[in-house]
Each structure stands twice: as C-alpha cells, then as structure tokens.
Amino acid sequence: MLREIYEQPQALSHTLDLYLDEKGLKPEIGELLSKWVAPEGEILIAASGSSRHSGLYAEILLEDLCGLAVDVEYASEYCCRGVSDLRHPSVLVLSQSGETTDTLDSLSEARRQGLKTLAITNAVASTMAHQADVSMPLAAGVEKAIPATKSFTCQLAVLYILALYEGVQLGRLDSELLRLLIPELKAVPGLIDSHLDSWRAQTERLAHKYKDASTFLYLGRGIHYAIAREGALKLKEASYVHAEGYPVGELKHGPNALVSDRVPLVVIATVDRNQPASVFRYEKTVQLLEDMKAQGARVIALANAGDTRVAVLVTDLIAVPEASEYLLPILEVVPLQLFAYFMALEHGVDVDRPRNLSKAVVEK
Fold first, then answer.
1. Is 179 inside any structural domain?
2. For a tag on the chain, would you pick the N or C end, based on fewer CB atoms within 10 A?
3. Is the pTM of this model over 0.85?
4. What Cα–Cα distance (Å) separates residue 344 from each residue in 7, 76, 145, 157, 225?
C-alpha cells in the first residue's frame, strides 16, 4: 500500500498522457465522447466502495462545470431496482478492476434499457471496458493492495478530464479557460511528489498520537465531502478503526453527540480563494472549527499551507498545497491514505491483506 501511495505521481502523469497532449485535450477523445451524454443532459453514476466516492466527486464537478444533472447510485442498489428509468440518463460506471459484480450488473441493466454507457476502469481489457459504449481507462498500473490508492486518484483525474471535455462540448468552457485549467491539472503529480515525504512523516506521528481513538468523524463540505467519505473508508478497511464521513454542516445534527477525547474529528478545511463559493464554504467550516475548539474537541484539519486561521483552532494541521477547488480533492486524499496506512501499523494490521476483504468483489 505504501509503495502504491508513492507511485501516485507517476500513475497520474501516465493517466493524463492518455487524454492530454501539448496542445491540450486530444481531439479524438472528444469525438469518442461527443455522443455519449443524452440530449436531456442527465447522468447516472453507478459504483461501489472507493469508486462511489469518485462518483460523488464527479457529481459536483459535472454539475458545476458542465451544468449536467447527476445522480450517484450504489451499484449494489441500482442493479436491483428492476424498473426502467423514465429520465433516460446516460450511465457512467466506475470500477478499478472493471469486473465488480454489482457494477457489471448495473452496466447490464443500463444496456437493457438502451441507455448510453461509459466505463472508467483501470483495466482496458476488462468486461466493463468492452461492454460499455465508451471506455476511458486509467493508466495507474497494477494495484495489488486491497485499499485503493493510486487507482482512486487516477479516477479523480479522469473524471476531471471528462468534465473538461463535456464542458467544451456543451459550450460551458472556452479555450481561454482551458489554457488555465489544463496546466493546473498537469501540475498535480508534481505537487503530490513534493509533499509525499513530509506527509509521510507527519501522518506517522499523528497515527501514534491518535492510536487509542475508538472512532473518527471525517468532515468535508461540497466536493470535499467525497474525500471525507473516502478517508473514513480507508481508515476502516486498512486499520479496522471505525470512522464515518459526514458533510461538515451535518455534525451538529446528531453526530456531535459522539465527539469526545476518544472520538476526534478529521476536518477538510481547504479553500480556493479565487472561487467565491469555495470561500463561503471555508468560512462556514472555520465557524464550525471555532465551535469545536470551544467544545474541547480534538481535531486534525487539512488546510492550505500557511493558513493561520485554521491552525489556531485545531489540535493538528496537515498542510495541503494551494490548488483550484476541483483539484484540491486529488491532493487532500493522499495524506488521508497515509494516515490510514500508519494507523494500520499502530494496530498491528497487515495492511495489504485486511480481513474479510478482496481486491475485486466478484461473485462466483
């Protein structure tokens, strides 16, 4: 798992090379995708586990950048609905292996209904990639550890690229904006690479400090809620420590009753100061952190490097390099992966072979 966390800069670079060239978006990819989205502009995403969290990220991304209407379904639920979708959406399935049974069944159900389908997998020769109308593979390389790391960040990158292509196709993104967005995306692997060692050292210390916690509550707002969910899942599957992911604003609607010295918070408090909506969400998160400090909660926060406002309100702070709102999640999830890894070591867990789990959920 640790090796694959460290392989993420290279995996991301290889994945970006599939869809971008020196001029920007490869035109042949745009042609491939041009007829995928239904005229009604509705998309249904079906996925499970970490891939569903990628889908939650894509929901915000495609709605904000492209103006599409997106629903995210658990693949295990969607494949059992048994009724035709009267909205006739395009269907996007996400799976690392491309062989996940529930997601394959969801793809089959979408095809039965005559819906247009797109598969994003890490296996170009997988059943899902072959059966979908359009395939957008990752180039993460073989991922052996059961907890998904490099495949997850590569999924986020491909979903971002999908949003760029659809934004152009729908007239929501012009060439001038793309000239700003694409270099930012290409810079992400280097940003991760330059912070891996410091994140590793810091999360190792934090895992030792918080090893006696019984439960963690991970909080994120907007597109960062998907990363809160993913961080909590990583902790559960890697270290056997219970964790749940919630929207920041939902903490006081019940879960705050759990917060104690044994139940710390992990709060994503990053911000893109060039986006007013991101600043608004950040201010609301800072307000909650102020309340949590007064309450005496133990808080680990992910915040922008140099953010002194957050630093004085929390117990520990993990610095994340500044980036645009929709690229911050790719950076945020990496220290959360490392924290889960070191928590597993603190609890004596064989992180590459967690009990009761398999790399791909395939029914025989």
1. no
2. C
3. yes
4. 20, 28, 13, 27, 23
